Amino acid sequence: MYQRVLIRLFTLLLGGLLSVNLAFAGSNQVVSVNALHAFSRGAPDTHPLTVMAPSGVINLFNTFRAGRDPLAINYFGGQGAFRESAELTLVVQALHFGGLDNAIDYVPYVNSGHQRYIDSMVKGRYVMMGESIWLSDVKDREDELYVTQPLVRPGEFYVGLYTHPDNKKALKARTIEQIRKLSIVTNPNWQSDVDVIHAIGFDKVYYAEAFTSMLRMVKRQRADVVLSAFSSNENYEHSWDGGVLIPIPGIKVMFPGSRHWIVSKAHKDGEMVYQALEKGIEALREKGQIRKAYIESGFFNQKAASWKSLEYHMNMTTKASVP
Prior knowledge:
The protein has helices at 6-18, 55-65, 83-97, 114-122, 168-172, 176-180, 191-200, 211-219, 270-287, 289-296; strands at 31-32, 49-54, 104-109, 128-129, 133-134, 145-147, 157-163, 183-186, 204-207, 226-229, 238-240, 243-247, 251-255, 259-260, 262-264, 308-309.
């Protein structure tokens, strides 16, 4: 659902529009994130690694990093703390523990479609994607991409069913039979979300590719709910200029999939970076750094730990289709 928190989506969009130092859509401009070269610990003749990320994600990362050396970051909360900014920090740490201290050039993309990111990786334009991706989104392309061991393991991630505060029908739903009678909206390109939605068995599923369209549909109750990661706010609400969404209380939905970094097999540095990441992930996992990063950034919400997990069965060998 790679990445699917409604307020975060608008933050990322706004970040992309305001990041004047980043490239516009379709540009091939390479931008070095502020002072990243300054802490490169490799040999003087090492070349920078080109890592792709949406411009809004780079904006979040710069806000979160606040000029700090990512290798020195051990607390992943605070301003700009989201899954994406945590993962761009973990990239640097994983490569370091894997033996690579090359400088990193983050290459921004603005408002590019999900599949365009993946296609760019397949073509070798960039060595890796800075944020993780659901395995289901690249499962058919593993012959073209290196896929690291998981950062988010199956069963670790839960989301809420978010609705409008005035939607009494949705807020009263407690059983899976009642939830199935609700309508839900999602992005047709988010394969993990689509798979979960079909496995639960919602009677009505609507599709919208624009974030604003999804939000408006839930706000106007044209759709009852949308899957979203829990907010770290006290009452779990996601607020934006157009309104507020809250989760159905006491209900959470487990995502059975896993999230991974992907590395280009076509890029000259691909194999080297992949091997370093594999070693680095193992080291970070042993230190407890990966789970710590996800908890402190709010991606793993501990406050909803006692909520009831909606029970459903998913066939992990096939993908749900979109009409």
